[in-house]
Amino acid sequence: VCQGTNNKLTQLGTFDDHFLSLQRMLNNCEVVLGNLEITYMQRDYDLSFLKTIQEVAGYVLIALNVVEKIPLENLQIIRGNMLFENTHALSVLSNYGANKTERHPMPLMKLEEILQGAVRFNNNPTLCNMETIQWHDIVDSSFVSNMSLDFPRHPPSSCQKCDPSCPSGSCWAAGKENCQQLTKTICAQQCSGRCRGKSPSDCCHNQCAAGCTGPRESDCLVCRRFRDGATCKDTCPPLMLYNPTTYQMDVNPDGKYSFGATCVKKCPRNYVVTDHGSCVRACSPDSHEVEEDGVRKCKKCEGPCRKVCNGIGIGEFRDTLSINATNIRHFRNCTTISGDLHILPVAFKGDSFTHTPPLDPRELDNLKTVKEITGFLLIQAWPENRTDLHAFRNLEIIRGRTKQQRSGRFSLAVVGLTDITSLGLRSLKEISDGDVIISGNRNLCYADTINWRKLFGTTSQKAKIQSNKDGRDCKAQGQVCNRLCSPLEGCWGPAPGDCVACQNVSRERECMERCNLLEGEPREFVENGECIQCHPECLPQPMNVTCTGRGPDSCVQCAHYIDGPHCVKTCPAGIMGENNTLVWKFADASHVCHLCHPNCPYGCTGPGLEGCTTNERLSPQGALEFEFEFRSLWN
Length: 635
Ligand SMILES: *[C@@H]1O[C@H](CO)[C@@H](O)[C@H](O)[C@H]1NC(C)=O
Ligand SMILES: *[C@@H]1O[C@H](CO)[C@@H](O)[C@H](O)[C@H]1NC(C)=O
Ligand SMILES: *[C@@H]1O[C@H](CO)[C@@H](O)[C@H](O)[C@H]1NC(C)=O
Ligand SMILES: *[C@@H]1O[C@H](CO)[C@@H](O)[C@H](O)[C@H]1NC(C)=O
Ligand SMILES: *[C@@H]1O[C@H](CO)[C@@H](O)[C@H](O)[C@H]1NC(C)=O
Known about the structure:
Mean pLDDT: 92
Strand content: 15-25%
Shape: flat
Bound molecules: 2-acetamido-2-deoxy-beta-D-glucopyranose
Number of helices: 5
């Protein structure tokens, strides 16, 4: 297996560099997981390493070559999971051959299947025999309209003709062995896909791609979707199975991951497992890698994924004084600042010496994802009409490993801001080292209600809260902590979300009078002074609690159906159980799920054989979605 490339028509270094990197990538490769791009090959290059390739998952691009021979003679299938110019799975463009007067075939003898995408041939004056190929036997009919086949009007006379025995006169090169094998257009009507001959008994199994040697799903030349050992399947064996006696999804000891078009027991080294049980090289941007039970998995990030960025004075910001209009976009999506942040008046004024325009105050929102600053935070300027440090609302910790030295050893300094009335640092839980100075902010209240000592990591840290708005004036003008705040702990501002601790209960970090225990939507229960939603499968109760805890088995009454101890949206229907059997259940009059009779293959609507459903109502896809929804209930 090899990765393939995504260079399109770009040349990497010299012709020789380009060739060597292709050779290194494809040496001994049978399955290309991405695209196969053969470009800029020069006349004397030896491309015999292409002979091992059997399968390409993306597209094949053969362009701008002057090489004599491109021996893709074992390529059977192009899956077209990615397409060149969003259209073509096979593009053969502007190949001139090594000697303009010599003609050569392109021996794609085994190519019998392109699952997605069309074919394009353009400007290949030295190619032979290609105009004879029946592409509609290879390409899926829905892509035929996008085919673009441009062959020389009169095939050069130096080309050798197809062998007369070739069916419909189509071949990849001269000689009997190079006839095109037809496996679709010749099939009997009964066949649903490919076949190995004209008779109805020659149909391939519908899991086959390219062709087959017999009728079973283990006789395919290539699998249309997944290969599990010798057998072609629609999906890999599921990782979880429903256990009808415990009413739970259990780990399937025979479950497999999908790796490209193959089912594997373990992902290869350097691959991680997604939610859906596929092996991938990197997690999607909204998830991160974790190790669970010895398996590396992608897990959804809670909020923005961790991203570490340099602070001011470090790396790309070495000679920078302040966050400013030129650099603020570099802080987008950062969760940890390695170093310090400075916001100085020059940011909002602009600086002609460094060609820095004034910072648009709205750009400060780029800092909203910051949770951690390893150094210090220095703010000496802030937009005129903003009343709190809104951009740092999610800041949780200032480590103070480096300190602002000029006027002390500060890790948090908010100095001389005229318009803020509160700090608004509602998530700040720790200042590990360094002193705090909040000074000369003439409209600022609330800062002296905070018990700074509780935030400090060492006993020697000090807080200087001085020359802000007079405490008596704050009180007189009602600029005091919200009544929902615990009166002992202080607050970062006037809102119920600014409290350090709550008087009663909280919901998503905001203080509340009470939770929705007996009324209100959604219904909740209380855990450690926090309002937490009941599971959506719990039926809201009038005048009574709706649930006693988390999850679908803590409901007082189910909203839909009851499967053992759990509330479920639907009874299990066609989900994989042990020994490769599907589990089906029906609901009785009181909405309790019961197992169908074991001889009901498509489920049932009631007990016994007479309750069996006769038709296949649930597609495998429907069952899969059910399983997925079901599985997520337990995670
Ligand atoms: C090109 O091929 C022709 C015919 O085989 C041969 O006569 C000629 O010498 C070749 N030219 C070059 C540059 O190799
Ligand atoms: C045909 O090509 C066009 C343009 O490249 C593309 O948008 C369209 O999706 C293609 N149609 C099919 C069936 O692939
Ligand atoms: C603004 O940021 C850019 C890029 O970091 C930097 O080159 C420039 O010196 C900065 N200007 C000021 C006044 O900090
Ligand atoms: C920031 O994150 C969003 C959402 O995850 C993403 O779409 C965007 O591309 C990211 N931007 C940068 C500059 O990383
Ligand atoms: C701040 O003031 C500027 C102009 O004085 C105005 O354009 C902007 O909308 C104001 N922003 C807020 C958040 O009030």
